Amino acid sequence: MINNAYTSKILLILIIFFLVSCEQQLSYLPSGDNKHIHYEITFIDKEKITKKYKQSYFLKESDRRKSVLVRSDGKVIQYEKEPQRLILKDVQYLFPGLVDRPKEKLEFERENIVYQMSLQKNKPWNTNDLTTLVVKLGYDRIYRTLLPINIENKLISLNETVKIKNKILKNCLKIEGFGQTSFFPGAPLGKIDITIKKTEWYAPGLGLVKLIREEISDSETMGNIYYEKIMNFD
């Protein structure tokens, strides 16, 4: 019993040391001399039609505790570093009137926790999100869900290796998220259950390098969608 108690204390000390070391040595904030960040997007809609496009960010401000990014569509995102976690502190739009989304749906990500390191293995945290699935009934009845949904996230790994084309990224964080909700479009359809699954990878000094997100419904009318976002190093 004494040996077991002693071993548990040693393991706890090692875990604390490892987490503190990661926090002190590695930053998962976008930073560095590269002021422009580019992503390649793959989107597969309910008809299984694949669309590919590019997305760019300008790193407006960056230091050890904060990064401010401006996306090509005018979305401004501010990240702030806190002890053992990263917060998406603020979200604004330079041209909110041009965004195809109701005003009250624009800032749902504000105060979301990007990652959280904990002494408890797989301790979850919650973030706010929106569904984006669409229901089409005939030619004139189109329902955009845009439902608020709570996503439960878990830090799966602290030392993932991610390969993007010929680029090898080590010591990446891997985060998995899961959420469920329901949509009621009205007759003749009943309740439609929606599930969101997502996996994110964050690399030191780069921030988000890869994201896979799926929205899955139990209705053939609504279908499923797939979204993949990968950093472009070319």
Structure description:
The strands form two sheets. The chain has a twelve-stranded antiparallel sheet with strand order 6-5-4-3-2-1-14-13-12-11-10-7, with no helix packed on it. Helix content is 10%, strand content 55%. The protein is globular. The protein has 234 residues and is mainly beta. The protein contains one helix and 14 strands; from the N terminus they run H-E-E-E-E-E-E-E-E-E-E-E-E-E-E. The model is unreliable at 11-24 (pLDDT under 50). The protein has one helix at residues 2-25, and strands at 36-44, 50-62, 66-71, 75-82, 85-93, 112-116, 125-130, 134-137, 141-144, 148-164, 167-183, 192-203, 207-217, 224-231.
Note the main attributes of this structure:
234 residues; twelve-stranded antiparallel sheet; 10% helix; single chain; 55% strand
What structural class should be given to the helix and strand makeup? mainly beta
Biggest beta sheet attributes: 12 strands, antiparallel
Give a count of the beta strands, DSSP E runs of length 2 or more.
Answer: 14
Q: Determine Rg (CA atoms, Å).
A: 20 Å
Shape descriptor reads globular
Distance between the termini: 57 Å
Helical content stands at 10-25%
The proportion of residues in beta strands is: over 45%
Strand arrangement across the biggest beta sheet:
6-5-4-3-2-1-14-13-12-11-10-7
Q: Which ranges are low-confidence, i.e. pLDDT below 50, for 5 or more consecutive residues?
A: 11-24
Q: What's the helix-strand series?
A: HEEEEEEEEEEEEEE
Mean pLDDT: 86
- The total of helices stands at 1
